């Protein structure tokens, strides 16, 4: 058994057996049947499942490598993106050079779609897609684990509770990330913090930066980071399909001091995040960090500065900021009307009014905050003020 077998993505030699396992997984076929035929899946599921399995076998014929699998599913991913967005744009992807590997550290708003949009940008630029960090809390079902590891995902063990076991898991994760970039020359995507930024306040957890160094403590921190091509990535959604659920969670946390997920809540968030309307989406790749930072907190502050500066603000962000009670008096923030054409603003106002109307009154401050925080943060950076 290899050092990284417990967490790494599947390799090409494993693809045929994993696909065969997936095509025989009844839970996987059940989900696909309900997704493809939501009205007929209940009464006719017994008939539809074999048809779904037959269709999948035909589509999977000839797939023997991870690259072939990604090529085969790319049109479906593109169609899903096209149906749920008003277009995806990206900038800075030309900074990623063939033959080099990068540690792509991104803000985190959606469980599945954040790395999917980064993959979309990289794939369509003709570059190898990165390996994706995913928490083991999302891999409770075997078919989910198989699908994700088939699509270049590797596992971050978050459910471990013992301190010694946690430290060993982080060391192994650190070793794998370093091995992937330095030895395999394969890029990595990882979120800047554990969990989504539900209030729109994107911040880099310095503990994640410290983790990158854990397996190479014999080298200076700055030297290790320099060898990883650490690259800030900003993922901007015009509208978050999960914004109402996030507002509800924030309200409950503020009211009771805690929040406990219901069974299946992550599955619902994943489904809504994939299929829900997002408006426009933009992905920005900043230049890899070249300055040396001996301290993780200073590096985290620089990552925050670059990720927030690269975030694209849409009209809805300014509309929300205008309603926000947390406006920063030190900032000169223009109104949406000063920045966007009338037709674009009218469309955004209608969508924003619709979202506010659908949100319970007591949850609305938290919905507003999600869209307003990126404005505050970006204008503080422009003004040279600390976040």
Tell me, what's the shape? Answer: globular
Total number of strands: 7
SSE order, one letter for each helix or strand: HHHHEEHEHEHEHHEHHEHHHHH
How much of the sequence is in beta strands? Answer: 5-15%
Rg, please?
A: 22 Å
Uncertain parts = none
Q: Into which percent range does the helicity of residues fall?
A: 40-55%
- The helix tally amounts to 16
Polypeptide structure, described:
By secondary structure, the chain is of the alpha/beta class. 52% of the residues lie in helices and 9% in strands. Helix 6 links the parallel strand 3 (131-135) and strand 4 (153-156). Helix 1 (15-23) runs antiparallel to helix 6 and helix 13 packs across helix 15 (342-358). The termini are far apart.
Layout of SSEs?
Layout: H1 15-23, H2 26-36, H3 41-60, H4 66-84, E1 88-91, E2 103-106, H5 113-124, E3 131-135, H6 142-150, E4 153-156, H7 163-182, E5 188-191, H8 206-213, H9 221-226, E6 230-237, H10 243-256, H11 265-275, E7 281-285, H12 296-309, H13 315-323, H14 336-339, H15 342-358, H16 364-382
Parallel strand pairs: 1-7, 2-5, 2-6, 3-4, 3-5
Antiparallel strand pairs: 6-7
């Amino acid at each position: 058994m290899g050092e990284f077998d417990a967490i790494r993505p599947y390799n090409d030699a494993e693809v045929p057996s994993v696909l065969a396992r997936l095509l025989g997984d009844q839970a996987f076929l059940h989900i696909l049947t309900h997704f493809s035929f939501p009205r007929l899946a209940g009464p006719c599921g017994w008939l539809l499942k074999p048809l779904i399995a037959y269709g999948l076998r035909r589509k999977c014929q000839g797939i023997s490598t991870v690259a072939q699998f990604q090529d085969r599913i790319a049109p479906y991913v593109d169609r899903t993106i096209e149906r749920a967005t008003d277009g995806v744009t990206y900038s800075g992807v030309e900074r990623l050079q063939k033959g080099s590997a990068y540690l792509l550290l991104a803000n985190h708003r959606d469980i599945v779609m954040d790395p999917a949009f980064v993959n979309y940008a990289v794939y369509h630029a003709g570059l190898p897609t990165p390996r994706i960090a995913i928490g083991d809390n999302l891999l409770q079902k075997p078919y989910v684990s198989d699908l994700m590891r088939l699509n270049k995902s590797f596992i971050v063990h978050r459910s471990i509770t013992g301190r010694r076991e946690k430290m060993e898991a982080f060391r192994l994760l650190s070793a794998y990330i370093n091995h992937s970039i330095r030895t395999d020359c394969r890029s990595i995507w990882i979120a800047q913090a554990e969990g989504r930024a539900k209030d729109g306040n994107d911040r880099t957890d310095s503990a994640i930066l410290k983790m990158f160094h854990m397996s190479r403590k014999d080298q200076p921190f700055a030297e290790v980071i320099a060898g990883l091509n650490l690259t800030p990535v900003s993922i901007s959604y015009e509208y978050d399909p999960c914004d109402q659920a996030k507002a509800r969670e924030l309200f409950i946390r503020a009211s009771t001091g805690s929040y406990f997920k219901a069974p299946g809540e992550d599955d619902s968030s994943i489904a809504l995040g994939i299929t829900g309307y997002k408006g426009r989406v933009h992905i920005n790749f900043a230049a890899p960090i070249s300055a040396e930072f001996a301290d993780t907190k200073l590096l985290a502050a620089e990552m925050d500065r670059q990720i927030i500066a690269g975030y694209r603000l849409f009209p809805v962000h300014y509309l929300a900021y205008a309603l926000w009670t947390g406006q920063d008096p030190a900032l000169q923030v223009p109104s949406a009307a000063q920045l966007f054409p009338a037709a674009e603003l009218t469309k955004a106002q209608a969508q924003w009014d619709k979202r506010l109307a659908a949100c319970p009154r007591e949850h609305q401050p938290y919905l507003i905050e999600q869209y307003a925080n990126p404005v505050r943060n970006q204008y503080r950076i422009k003004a040279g003020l600390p976040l």
